[in-house]
Design goal:
The complex is a heterodimer of chains A (about 220) and B (about 110). Chain A has about 220 residues and is mainly alpha-helical. Chain A has 12 helices and no strands. In chain A, helix 6 (about 70-80) runs parallel beside helix 8, helix 8 packs antiparallel against helix 9 (about 115-145) and helix 11 (about 170-185) runs antiparallel to helix 12. The radius of gyration of chain A is 19 Å and the shape is globular. Chain B is about 75% helix and about 0% strand. Chain B contains 4 helices and no strands. The chains are: A mainly alpha (about 220), B mainly alpha (about 110). At the A-B interface, helix 2, helix 3, helix 4, helix 5 and helix 6 of A face helix 1, helix 2, helix 3 and helix 4 of B.
Chain lengths: ~220, ~110
C-alpha cells in the first residue's frame, strides 16, 4: 500500500502544476482534486482548459476517461454487497485506479473472511486521498517557483506516458493505443480539440475489432 | 467566460458525473448487477486509447507541425523506454523533462 501512496505523489504535484499552467489558482486545483479525485481526468481537463477548449469538450473528455470506473464499480459490487448503503456510497467517492487495484486483489485472494473488507478499503483509500490533496497544494506552490527554462507543460504528456504503459497489456490494447495516437496526430488541427475524442473513439473501435477477431480465431 | 468560471463548471460537472459512474454498481450492489460481457472489452480499452490520444500530438506535433524526430518526439521515446523499464512515474517525468531540455539545446 505504501508504494502506491508514494507513487501518486508525483501525480498530485503534476495536478497542482497543471492547474497553475492552465492559468488557474489554488482553489481550482484543490477543487479538482477533492471533487474529481482522478489523476488522468484532472490532467486532461486542465490541459484542455489551458488550451481554451470549449467547456463541453473539457467535460466530455474527462468523463470519457473516467468511464473505466464503471468496470471497477461493477467488479467491486459483489465483494462489498454486504455493506450498508451509506458505506458503499462513501466508498464510491473514494473509488480510484489505486484503491480498486489494491482492494480487488486482496478481496479475491483472501478465502477466509478474516479481513474486514470495509476497513481494508477505507484504510487504503484515506491515505491516498490525503496524499492527493496535500501534493496538489505542493504542486501549485512549486509550479510558480520553477524556472521558465524547464518546460513544465511537457510534464503532462510524460505523466500520461507513465499512465499509458501499464494499460497496454495485450494486442487489442496496443491496437487501441496506436490507432488513437495516429488519428490524434493527424486530426490535431480540427477545431475545438475535436481530434482528441475522435481519435480515442477510433482507437477503442479498432481495439474492439481486434479483440473480436482474436476471440474467433 | 473566464477560465476560472469554465474550470468551476467543469469541476462540478465532471465531479458529479464521475461520482455517478463510481457509484453506478456499488449503489445497487445488494441487487447483484453485472456489466454484460460484450461491454467489458470497450470499457477496458478506454484508458489506452484516451491516453495515447493525449500523448501522441504533444510529442509528435508539439507546435502544430508534425515533427517525427524533434526534441519532443525523442524525449517522449526516451520517457516511454523509462516508463516500460522502471514503471516509475517520477523517473519517467524527470528523465523525460531532462531529455526535452537537453535535446532542445542540442537540436533546437
Amino acid at each position: 500500500m505504501l508504494p502506491i501512496t508514494v507513487g501518486i505523489a508525483p501525480f498530485g504535484i503534476i495536478a497542482g502544476i497543471a492547474a497553475t499552467d492552465a492559468g488557474l489558482g489554488l482553489p481550482e486545483a484543490v477543487g479538482f482534486s477533492v471533487l474529481v479525485l482522478a489523476g488522468a481526468a484532472q490532467l486532461a481537463a486542465l490541459d484542455l482548459i489551458g488550451r481554451d477548449a470549449p467547456l463541453l469538450v473539457v467535460i466530455m473528455t474527462a468523463l470519457i476517461i473516467n468511464l473505466r470506473m464503471l468496470m471497477y464499480s461493477a467488479s467491486l459490487a459483489p465483494e462489498l454487497a454486504h455493506l450498508p448503503r451509506g458505506r458503499r456510497l462513501l466508498g464510491s467517492y473514494w473509488l480510484t485506479d489505486q484503491t480498486y487495484a489494491v482492494s480487488i486483489v486482496r478481496f479475491r485472494d483472501t478465502e477466509v473472511a478474516t479481513v474486514d473488507r470495509w476497513w481494508f478499503y477505507a484504510g487504503s483509500a484515506l491515505p491516498l486521498w490525503v496524499v492527493w490533496q496535500l501534493t496538489t497544494v505542493v504542486g501549485v506552490l512549486v509550479g510558480d517557483a520553477v524556472p521558465a527554462a524547464i518546460p513544465l507543460g511537457f510534464a503532462l504528456p510524460l505523466a500520461f506516458i507513465s499512465l499509458l504503459v501499464p494499460t497496454v497489456t495485450d494486442r487489442p490494447a496496443v491496437v487501441a493505443a496506436v490507432v488513437a495516437g495516429t488519428v490524434a496526430v493527424v486530426a490535431a488541427p480540427l477545431p475545438a480539440n475535436a481530434g482528441m475524442p475522435l481519435a480515442a473513439l477510433a482507437g477503442i473501435l479498432a481495439g474492439w475489432v481486434t479483440a473480436r477477431r482474436g476471440d474467433r480465431a | 467566460m473566464s477560465r476560472t468560471t469554465i474550470a468551476w463548471i467543469a469541476i462540478a460537472a465532471v465531479g458529479l458525473g464521475t461520482y455517478l459512474v463510481r457509484a453506478s454498481f456499488l449503489a445497487v450492489a445488494h441487487r447483484v448487477a453485472e456489466i454484460p460481457a460484450r461491454w467489458r472489452t470497450p470499457l477496458r480499452l478506454i484508458p489506452p486509447a484516451v491516453l495515447a490520444a493525449l500523448v501522441a500530438p504533444a510529442v509528435l506535433r508539439p507546435d502544430g507541425v508534425v515533427v517525427l524526430l524533434g526534441p519532443r518526439a525523442i524525449a517522449g521515446a526516451i520517457a516511454l523506454g523509462v516508463a516500460v523499464w522502471t514503471r516509475s512515474v517520477l523517473a519517467t517525468i524527470l528523465v523525460g523533462l531532462a531529455a526535452a531540455v537537453g535535446l532542445e539545446v542540442l537540436l533546437g
